[in-house]
Amino acid sequence: MSRLLEQPLNGTTYESSGVSIEAGDAAVERIKDIVASTKRAEVLGGIGGFGGLFALDTTKYRAPVLVASADGVGTKLDVARQVGRYDTVGIDLVAMLVDDLACVGAEPLFLLDYVAVGKLEPARLEELVAGIAEGCRLAGTALLGGETAEHAGVMAPDDLDVAGFAVGVVERGEELGPERVRDGDVLVGFASPGLRSNGYSLARRVLVNNVGDLSAPAWDGADHSLGDELLVPSVIYAPTVTALRRDLGGAVHACAHVTGGGIVGNVARILTSSLDALIEMESFDTPRIFFEIQRRGRVHADEMVRVFNCGVGMVVALESGAADAAISIARANGVSAMRVGSIRSGKGEVVLT
Questions:
Q1: pTM, rounded to two decimals
Q2: What is the pLDDT of residue 146?
């Protein structure tokens, strides 16, 4: 049978099942200009096609290696949902993606997002995508495309999840990583003013589930709410790493993006089995929110450094003589930086002092 059945016009529709095609069209119309604001010269066409087109500049790289990453925002989204504000979590998404690419030495080129909702609200999607676009502009990367899926009947109407996929490029043979790290290297840390987008399951249990009021002051005497504190957007470090590589060349050996796994778990990823990293915990400021989590939840210090960045969102291993220049370059790029430790011979461990 090749013909569809004749059925009444007042039968079941997609909209009555919970999915609005009209809302989807309205959402696309709202975000078209936002997406266009992130366009790089290599982007061909605009949104609305079946795939995004990006013309890789093969004259810039002799042997280009593409680097890809995928990530999400995690349960920080639940804080955004409770507060009713989605303007910063898009920046977090971009940071999680492009800062991972930077750790390989890659220049971020483009990003795609995937948003799943229980009910599509064009204004909410616009707010979220505006944050993603702002992150892309800060990172110098294009928002090449994405997908929005309305999961009616599966997700609650106010539920939302977002993931992203980013692609970058690095010259073959110039990748950053553990094999470049040497005994005597210095570690420079980039400051993080907040939790970034990691450890929120623990933070929410301690700060939200036990208190339940995100509109209350973040702590006694704070001039901002707990919700605002937990929605502080991640600093995007990728442009600063690019600046370091441009100005210092081979003196930059490796980068550790401090995400899930905290300081200990992520700095370990830039070590070989014969090297240790010494991190001086007194060398950087730990924002108040981390102490609030520790105090209210009676969280052991070892657990804190295994879960959170504790004030350092990126750690860069460099030749010892390049440390001061690296700190100056970072600060010129708007990122607070400081010496946080060094590399010595050892067993592949992170030692906190």
A1: 0.90
A2: 86
